[in-house]
Write a sequence for this structure.
């Protein structure tokens, strides 16, 4: 009877090992597939519905990014992960990214939810953001060029200066 217990225990360990080391990694969503609805960001801006933008024309805010990209025209997209207008705007920007001019970088900044950090709050205060789904184009010195609320790719392309 004791041998059966040892055999069952060893079998269970092997089955669990196979699952965690062989099957589970194959079942994870691909991190290279931006259209995968189950994928969320791994940064502090993680939120359902907001995939990692991950390109040079549409990026997620990180501390110092605005300064690092001062040689491009920058548009800050202030969003919230609970915003019913922000989610489709984010999707439209990701899907239409090839239409964004090469010298323009859109930086998605978390505005007012549990994931918003101090740097993002400071940016919102600096540019007088009063609600999510606001776009602010800034120059290389961080000064406002133009500011608008709402819209997605079409409005963005119309408002770029």
């Amino acid at each position: 009877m004791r041998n059966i217990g040892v055999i069952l225990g060893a079998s269970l360990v092997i089955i669990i090992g196979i699952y965690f080391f062989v099957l589970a990694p194959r079942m994870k969503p691909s991190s290279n597939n931006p259209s995968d609805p189950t994928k969320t960001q791994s940064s502090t801006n993680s939120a359902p519905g907001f995939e990692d933008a991950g390109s040079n024309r549409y990026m997620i805010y990180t501390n110092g990014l605005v300064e690092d990209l001062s040689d491009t025209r920058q548009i800050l997209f202030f969003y919230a992960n609970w915003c019913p207008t922000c989610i489709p705007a984010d999707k439209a920007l990701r899907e239409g990214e090839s239409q964004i001019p090469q010298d323009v970088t859109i930086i998605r900044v978390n505005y007012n939810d549990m994931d918003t950090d101090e740097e993002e709050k400071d940016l919102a205060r600096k540019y007088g953001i009063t609600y999510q789904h606001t776009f602010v184009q800034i120059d290389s010195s961080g000064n406002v060029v133009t500011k608008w609320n709402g819209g997605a790719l079409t409005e963005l392309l119309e408002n770029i200066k």
Q: What stands out?
A: Residues 1-30 form one domain.
